[in-house]
Here is the input.
Amino acid sequence: MSNKDISNSIKQLLIDTLSLDLAVADMEDELLLLGNIPEFDSMAIVSIITAIEEDFHFQADDDDLSAEVFESVASLIQFVESRA
Here is the structure.
């Protein structure tokens, strides 16, 4: 899977999970997640991690899941790319 495919998949996952009124093409990599999007709460994080693990076939270790991973769209994409 290419980096572009991973990026688009993560963006679509965020849009679907958070019920955002955005298209994948309109979601900027620099979009801040934590503290910026009200729907991005602890339950959303659990749903997103579960979906990422299923879609990309890896298990995220609790030690790897820091606030920095969820800081922005780009940081979440980078996290997945480093494991995919």
Notes: The chain has one domain: 3-81.
